[in-house]
Design brief:
By secondary structure, this protein is mainly beta. It has a single domain, classed as Lipocalin, CATH 2.40.128.30. The chain is 10% helix and 41% strand. It has one helix and eight strands. It has an eight-stranded antiparallel beta barrel with strand order 1-2-3-4-5-6-7-8. The radius of gyration is 19 Å and the shape is globular. Mean pLDDT is 88; it is low at 9-16. Bound molecules: 2-acetamido-2-deoxy-beta-D-glucopyranose (3 copies). One 2-acetamido-2-deoxy-beta-D-glucopyranose binds next to strand 1.
Length: 146
């Protein structure tokens, strides 16, 4: 039974690997990205659903930016994948994000995402140019102490 014991020992060591703890990568909390956009995500439901608000730092429109609602889901394993939709409520666009939460070598969570931004097209002839694609990286936003 020696091989089994060694295997269990290896498995145990792997689970204790530095920088990876089970409670990390729960998306609940405050995040900021490389553009300075912020999002606040509420508590996860038992099936991994969440809701929050997203404040973008950039916009394709001339309209005043407002905090907008977002909803999404995430898996519950370590370094989980996730997706969420932002329903911009100051303009008639919609963005979907998908990504994965990683724990970096310093034990810090980092969200690597890609997004599709759908702008409203006035006619089907403009459909071809109505979707943009991009990438964003999010980290936890430090709480501002006053
Ligand atoms: C997120 O930020 C809000 C204020 O913007 C603060 O009230 C809240 O405590 C923060 N939550 C966490 C988990 O840091
Ligand atoms: C995001 O939060 C930071 C820190 O609270 C703030 O300085 C910045 O203006 C916020 N960005 C937006 C787009 O509101
Ligand atoms: C837009 O969404 C934000 C965040 O959910 C909410 O506070 C605000 O009332 C909404 N505004 C409108 C016009 O729906």
């Amino acid at each position: 039974m020696v091989p089994t014991t060694s295997l269990l020992l290896l498995l145990g060591l792997a689970l204790l690997a530095p920088g990876l703890s089970a409670d990390q990568c729960d998306l609940t909390g405050n995040w900021t990205n490389d553009l300075g956009s912020n999002m606040t995500i509420g508590k996860l439901s038992s099936n991994g659903e969440f809701a929050g608000t997203y404040i973008t730092a950039v916009t394709t429109t001339k309209k005043e930016i407002k905090a907008s609602p977002m909803v999404g889901t995430q898996h519950s394993n370590t370094q989980p994948t996730f997706g969420f939709t932002v329903n911009w409520n100051f303009t008639d666009s919609t963005t979907v994000f998908t990504g994965q939460c990683f724990v970096d070598e310093h034990g810090k969570e980092i969200l690597k995402t890609m997004w599709l931004l759908r702008s409203h097209a006035d006619s089907i002839d403009d459909n071809w140019k109505a979707t943009r694609v991009g990438i964003n990286t999010f980290t936890r936003r430090a709480e501002v102490m006053e």
